[in-house]
Amino acid sequence: MTAVHFRRSCCEEAASIGAERGGDHAGQQNVVSEFGNHFNNAVFSKNREFLPMKTVKTITILLLFLTAPLLLMAGENQPLYNLTVNIEPDAGSISVRGTVDVLPADPAASTFKFDLHETMAINRLLVNGKEASITYGPMQAQLPFPATRGVIVTLPAGTSKGPIHMEIEYDGRMKVLPEFGATEDMSHSLDDQVNARMVELAGYSSWYPQLSFGKRLHVELTVSLPQNWITVCSGKKLEERIENGRVVTRWSSPKDGDIVILGSRDYKKKSFEGAGFHIDVYYTQMPAQFIDSDGTQIVNSLKLYSDLLGNTTVPGGTVKHVFSPKRKGQGKAGFAQPGLIVTSQGLTLEGLAQDPKFSLFQGVAHEVAHYWWNFGYGQGDWINEAFAEYFSAVAMQKLSSDQEFRAIMADYRHQVSELPADAPPLATVPIWTDFVVRYYKGAVMLDTLRQTMGDEKFFQASREFFQTYTGKPTGTVEFRSFWKAKLGAQGSMIDAWMDSTGGVPKVTVHPPASKDRLTRKSGIAGPWPCGPCS
Ligand SMILES: [Zn+2]
Q: What are residue 271's DSSP bridge partners?
């Protein structure tokens, strides 16, 4: 399971209001799950000013933003899921049968645990070919998992300890809960739903047995829905067939962060090609112009990052952006898994109703940037977020306007300056917490490095950093030594940024000769409008 962060939207001028909940810097209670769900309390007005939390209660739109970096690397003990899921939208029910191969958290124990949706009845459970007994207990995940209970499995007598092969069959009616943001009661809200309107299933509902948190999953998935439904999952679509009035699709995702199933009778699809990528955008009632812009923005972000950093692989070979037809829900740009970005269609339409210029551009650009920035490992996950966030701001600069870039960076600097004095340093910031430190302080540090080194050197070094470490578990130690070497005589500024608690450290920046700064002669080649080229 990979990290999923509920986070503030990045594109405030378009969003009007972004709000998150339970953050660090505003002293509210954090809600942190083992998925890493992180609700922040940052609330911003149209002009990116901080608003007191009370104001939020009067604001009807809560635009949250959830993102999922690809956290974990090859070589880990990767759980393998092979599941067949029958979904009955009208009844709100699912039935699942399949296998899970996993090394339990404590391989020496005579029991192991998993989390499962509380209304699911387990009809069959075999471990290594023998029937196993179960009891129920507290869930392993932390809030917000409003419909989850723990299942404790006792290993059958004579079962050898170590890796387990679990065969399981269960079914039930999904618990009906309000969508996230539809009521004040966030901790009992859930976007996962199965009904006549739509299907959205992800880890939040624990619709599948959750045995290990924080590991990439190898997922082989077969989904059956009534024949007139359209199914979208993460990973690669292997097959679609009609069988007894049902549409059956098969999907394979070798390194996923979650098992996501989306469905609607009414999905329309618009496809885009560009920069060597195929992009499918799914929606039910978005304006055509918005979908065109969205597809173009994804193409242009992919092209920009490819030009800046070099080629990467998009899992499944296709970028899917799905506007799930929920009315509220988490996120502005939504959440992302390999090759899949999921956005609330209802929130997007609300945003558009309030502001015709409403855009998801930076949020989507952040998710797209994770196709490159995903090798930060463990505590080094901040590297993924700092680079994805900064490069999404760079995408705004290169593809939208320099003014927008400056507003974004001014906002981040402001938020970083408001961090409490004891906010943890980047070098030790824990993986699931401290959104402003990991995303914004990291991004402001990168912007400072860019100003110090000049565009050409900074983007060349970013490219080299990506190409050196992609696919390798990378942490703070590697980041520090790489960038220190690139900074040469000014290498100590890295330590100041990495090791300082609180906000912006006091670092003297010596920009390079002006001709090397933000000029068209920089090493960034591309057709995008070059905002600061003056
Ligand atoms: Zn991210």
A: 280
Domains of the chain: residue spans and CATH:
373-534 (1.10.390.10)
Q: At what angle do helices 381-399 and 476-487 cross, to 10 degrees?
A: 50
Instruction: Calculate how far, in angstroms, residue 389's C-alpha sits from the geometric centre of ligand 1.
Output: 7
Mind listing the pLDDT tens digit for each residue in 444-471?
A: 999 999 999 999 999 999 999 999 999 8
Q: How far is the CA of 32 from the centre of ligand 1 (A)?
A: 16
pLDDT reported for residue 174:
97
Alpha-carbon span 441 to 436, nearest angstrom = 6
The contacts of residue 394 (CB under 8 Å, 6+ apart) are: 304, 308, 405
Using DSSP's 3-state secondary structure scheme, residue 220 falls into strand
Q: How far apart are CA 468 and CA 462, in angstroms?
A: 10
Q: What is d(CA 174, CA 445) in angstroms, rounded to the nearest whole number?
A: 44
DSSP code at position 38: B
Q: Say which DSSP state 129 is in.
A: T
Strands (E), 41-147: 43-44, 64-67, 80-88, 93-102, 111-117, 121-127, 130-131, 133-137
CA of 267 to the centre of ligand 1 (A): 26
- Least Cα distance to 468 among 455, 483, 454, 453 occurs for 483
Residue 160 CA to ligand 1 centre (angstroms):
40
Q: At what angle do helices 402-417 and 442-453 cross, to 10 degrees?
A: 120
Specify the pTM. Answer: 0.79
Cα 466 to ligand 1 centroid, rounded to whole Å: 16
